[in-house]
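Handout, section B. The chain below has 73 residues.
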Amino acid sequence: HGSAKRTGASPALIDDDTPTPAHARFSWPRLALVALGGVALMGLAWLALAAWGGTHGTLAQMGWFFSKAALLT
């Protein structure tokens, strides 16, 4: 739409010199909070399946197996 000419590459929005934002920095309390939240969600989902079909139900057994596999890997 015009005769503007580009000379070289334009700077990236996020490059190697961009500082890490505060919400993306590592912290042990945040890691613990996210891990506990994930385990709590997994436990609530399994409890719902166990309440619906019993602890020996197919869905509860599959949920228990794959939850253990997810935590192991």
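Note. The chain is about 55% helix and 0% strand. Compare this with the example in section A.
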